[in-house]
Amino acid sequence: MALLIQNLLHANHTSRRLSFEKETYVNPFFEAKKFLQKIFAEHVNNRIGKITLDYFAQLNQSGFEERARVFGETYNLYEAAGAARGVFIGKKISYYARELQVPNRPLVYEKLVMLTQGHFHGIPLIFDKTKITLNSITPWDIGKKNLHRIYRNNVKSATKEQWKKINPSFNYIIDKNLYHEWGETVKKNEKSKK
User: pTM for this structure?
Assistant: First the structure.
């Protein structure tokens, strides 16, 4: 089988000569298993890459609304990063923030960190030319209104400390919201004692 595949790959003399020069020629009689494993891995990796590129090309064509929906609904952070990659702060990032405002979305905290920092595992997601510096991307300021809506609908997706780390202005929102809930509880307890 290795001999047949190699003959198909080297159908003419010049391709065989080039494989000798590049030192990629494998003797199909002695190294058949290694050769077949290499060809199989190359074929599978090429196929996976093509399917992934086709998928993201299709997402790009479908628009930011669809990409934002995928971003909000997925349980896979890598898929979420792929859906958010290429967004601009000045355009369409509000779709992503709106998706995180929906109650009970999965991994809200991690996705919010992804958007506000502008990268995921060192890979840039936000492509604003004015926001990119030599070392990093300037974080996106999501705003108090969006943060409050996301927090209100997804309180249990992170701890209080994690929510406060997202944005310094968010500390006030959390403290105000917690005080408000605590104040209502105290009033209810006082009424029940009377």
Answer: 0.56
